[in-house]
Specification:
This protein is of the alpha/beta class. It has helices at residues 8-19, 93-100, 136-149, 214-220, 249-258, 397-412, 421-435, 449-468, 478-496, and strands at 2-4, 25-27, 68-69, 75-76, 78-81, 84-87, 156-157, 160-166, 174-182, 185-193, 196-198, 205-206, 225-227, 241-245, 264-268, 286-288, 291-295, 317-320, 325-326, 331-334, 338-339, 374-375, 379-380, 386-388.
Length: 499
């Protein structure tokens, strides 16, 4: 069994598969486990403005056998996307490392926004004394401890990127082609697996909106404009005026960290259903509306803050749909989330087909805002030997992904039986009719929905447990459910004050 990713989803999947004595290999492109909670002071290369197509991903995917030795122990390779040839790296080993495995979005001050007593794996409790809200290093260490103590670390190949997963017609096994980075050299290998579990997370390919003028602003003042994935410290904004585009958790966190450091913080929102209420923002933050366009000067001026020794704002203007105009902006942070992307599965992507046109053979369509054709948000209906852990949003992540991993392990080990393809397809189509398509399709934000989802999983796999002579799967404990509802009431009271 192959597992892609060694964040909490991949670690849990590997551990539960190992518990059924299955052969497991985990591929992690970073040098350690931890996923989105691993802090790397380096930042990923700039995304494209606007976003890449979903199938492209956040790295340049190689083609099989596409390497040559340049004589300096540094990989030389290029790949072609939409008619454009991109170098896989520079001849700089440090740059190669970043392009090979782009650092994640974790910043030094990151903390959890779901309390640890809810965000916990069934594999082990948090260390005694861990507070409800803690720092990223504590969370990263928790994931790494799970991997080390339960065997996942021992079966993980780090610094190993999955570039292609495929299955030839009529074949039973998946071919998994990987690249492994060692001392500036890349080793390619293809291995075959009976099943693949994708646990690569949400936070890879930045979503950058195509707001008129934003691309030009970025081109003129490149250091001024970043995606939230590239944010590491508020010190960059000291004494400066900052516009954040987006109203999600990243925007909230950056505003909180930058309060009292930045001169002025503006936070732009379109009024979406998942926006953080304004009451949760620091009082000094000014919430503004949707950006209509960016107006940039015709020529770059020497007072650009991109130039060393200058602290002047850009000469550009930000025009909002309500007619408001902002000037004197030093920095723009695009905190507009991420695109659903599995570049190692290009055959299941379409960058031209829209969501409502998706056939049963597709996982990701042009919008890149959901995963199509999954049973219970886990199993690819056309071929359930391809499964996913970690797709749902708005959850107590560690807890929920642990349950999903248990289900995957039981199915792949023959301890739980999937419904027929027809039954899975019918259930999926009912969900589409009832919930609609898009990012909200995977959201468990509605009160009680996460509890209901886990109960559905538990009830399903336990129907087979007694017959197969194995212990039943345990669902949420009553104490967990009580804590969940207490937190919901707290959030409800907080959100109601913003209306």
């Amino acid at each position: 069994m192959a597992v892609v990713g060694a964040g909490i989803s991949g670690v849990c999947a590997a551990v539960y598969l190992l518990k059924y004595d299955l052969e497991v290999k985990v591929f992690e492109r970073a040098s350690v486990a931890g996923g989105a909670w691993h802090f790397d002071p380096r930042v990923s290369d700039d995304p494209t403005f606007p976003s890449e197509a979903p199938s492209v991903g956040d790295y340049v995917r190689s083609l099989a056998g596409q390497f040559s030795d340049a004589g300096d122990d540094i990989l030389v390779a290029e790949t072609e996307t939409n008619g454009t040839t991109h170098p896989l790296h520079t001849a700089d080993e440090a740059a190669l490392s970043v392009s090979f495995s782009p650092p994640g979005p974790c910043y030094a001050g990151l903390t959890n926004n779901v309390p640890t007593h809810l965000m916990v794996s069934a594999l082990a409790p948090w260390p005694t004394g861990t507070p409800p809200n803690t720092t990223q290093d504590v969370i990263e260490q928790y994931v790494q401890a799970l991997a080390a103590s339960h065997g996942a670390h021992a079966v993980t190949e780090y610094d190993t990127r999955v570039d292609e997963i495929s299955k030839a017609p009529g074949q039973e096994a998946w071919a998994v082609r990987t690249l492994r980075l060692r001392g500036g050299r890349v080793e390619e290998q293809t291995r075959r697996f009976d099943a693949v579990v994708v646990a690569s997370g949400h936070y890879n390919l930045p979503r950058v909106p195509g707001i008129p003028g934003l691309k030009d602003w970025k081109a003129l003042f490149p250091a001024q404009v970043i995606h939230a994935k590239q944010y590491r410290t508020p010190e960059t904004f000291r004494g400066r005026n900052v516009l954040l585009i987006g109203a999600g958790t990243s925007a909230l966190d950056i505003c909180r960290e930058s309060e009292g450091i930045a001169n002025k913080l503006y936070q732009s929102t379109r009024g979406g259903q998942f926006d953080i209420p304004a009451v949760m923002m620091p009082p000094s933050v000014e919430r503004v509306g949707e950006v209509e366009r960016f107006h940039v000067p015709s020529e770059r001026t020497i007072t650009s803050p991109d130039l060393p020794g200058h602290n002047a704002p850009s000469a550009g203007e930000v025009i909002f749909r309500d007619g408001t105009v902002l000037k004197d902006i030093h920095h723009i942070v695009v905190a507009t989330g991420y695109i659903t992307s599995y570049p190692f599965l290009p055959q299941f992507h379409s960058d031209t087909v829209l969501a409502h046109e998706a056939g049963p053979e597709l996982l990701v369509t042009a919008e890149g805002n959901m995963v199509h054709n999954l049973h219970k948000d886990i199993f690819f209906i056309d071929d359930p030997t391809l499964s996913f852990v970690g797709v749902p949003y708005h959850t107590a992540t560690f807890s929920l992904f642990d349950f999903q991993a248990q289900v995957v392990a039981r199915v792949l080990a023959g301890r739980a039986i999937l419904p027929s393809t027809e039954a899975m397809r019918d259930e999926y189509q009912r969900r589409v009719r009832d919930e609609g398509l898009g990012r909200g399709f995977h959201s468990l934000k509605m009160a009680g929905r996460e509890i209901e989802y886990v109960k559905e999983l538990v009830d399903w796999v336990n129907r087979d447990a007694a017959r197969l002579g194995i212990p039943p799967m345990l669902g949420h404990a009553k104490s967990w459910i009580d804590e969940y509802w207490a937190l919901r009431e707290k959030w409800k009271a907080l959100f109601s004050t913003s209306k």
